Structure formats: structure tokens, C-alpha cells
Amino acid sequence: MAKLSxxxxxxxxxxxxxxxxxxxITEASLAATHGVSRVPVREALxxxxxxxxxxxxxxxxxxxxxxxxxxxxxxxAVREAxxxxxxRRAAARAASLFRKAAPPPEEWWRIRSILAGLLDDGDAAVxxxxxxxxxxxxxxxxxxxxxxxxxxTLGVLLRQLSGKIEWLYASDEHxxxxxxxxxxxxxxxxIDAGDADRxxxxxxxxxxxxxxxxxxxxxxxxxxxEPAVNEAIANALR
Length: 238
Hints:
The protein is mainly α. Helix content is 74%, strand content 4%. It has two domains: 6-64, Orthogonal Bundle (Arc Repressor Mutant, subunit A), CATH 1.10.10; 69-237, GntR ligand-binding domain-like (Four Helix Bundle (Hemerythrin (Met), subunit A)), CATH 1.20.120.
């Protein structure tokens, strides 16, 4: 496995919770942790600030950012629109490929095989209670569906959001991940069957369940935000 860049390694630590929101981070400490000079760390922090993972203030320093509830809800809404589109597109492509006399291209089967392996790995992680593996597997599965759709545009857009999506998923993995993971198999089955309507419906429901779970947990942790969160949940259920 290729070694992660400093930027990827710091992002990974934020996503998995090794660096919690609000944690103060310094170039010196991160350079020591990752065995590099302060220059690549400085560049990594600038990039992660642009991605929304880090907040930096003059004369104060850098801290791990948090995702405000409103931003998280917006992210889920955008994600739902994108992922419903990728699922529908993948199913329509499957229907088209399997109607032809020639067999589907090798690239289709390569991606489909990867998705099958990810589902097996996720099932094994749920069975063994190794839920820390689920955010990464979940991200790879959804990106794989985008690849299966054959849409470069949808794939690029989803990859731009994938880090934040994985961060939200990781924050809720132990309370929701075990329940949500099995929903992936019916989605892929609908794609295999070439049923675009069913694939889109299942994907939309899957993302909404993540959205509702995240918002519900946010409300329980911050009672003052409960009215706004309840409104967001009601909107997600429409």
C-alpha cells in the first residue's frame, strides 16, 4: 500500500477521530508525528483549511474544524442528489450493456468485482465488530457506484465531497454504521437488475437514513439546536 501524503495522513487522523474537532494543532507537533519537516505540514494545513477540515487564525494558530449542523445538512442534501443520480445512471448503464449481444466491457466487471469485495469486507467488519473499518469501506463503495455509472462528471463531484462524507459517516459509525451497512447489497442488486427507479429509490433512502441519524444525534448532544435540527429532519423526511 502506498504511503499516505502528509495531507492525506492528517485528514485521515481527523476523519477517524484521532484529532477531534477543536484540537489545537501545530506545525512542529505534526512534523514530529509524521517524520517530516514543517514545510510540507504547512502546505498540508493550508490545503486542509481550504477543504474545511482545519481552521486557522492569525496569532492563534490552527485547530481541527467542526462541521456545523447546517453545513452537514446541506452536505447530505447535495450528497443525496448526487448519489441518486449515480445509482440511476449505473442501473441504466447495466440495462443497456446487458441488452447488447456483446458481453459488457472488462472495465465493468473489474469495478463490479471490487464492489463485491467491498461488500464482503464490510459484512465481515460488522460481524466481527470492527466498525472502524466501515467509513473507508463505505466511501469506496459509493465511489465505486459512481465509477460503475460511467459518468466522469458525477464521479469527480462525488470525490470532491468524499472526505467530508466519510468524516460525517465516521462520527456516527458505532451508532448507525452497523444498521446502515446491509443497505448496500439491495442497492447493488437493483443496479445489477438494470432497475434505475429502484436503484435511485434505495440510494435516496439510504442517504436520508444517514442524514436523519446524524441530525438526531446532533440534537441530543446540543439541546439548544434541537428546534433547528427537528426542522431539518422533517425536511429530510419529505
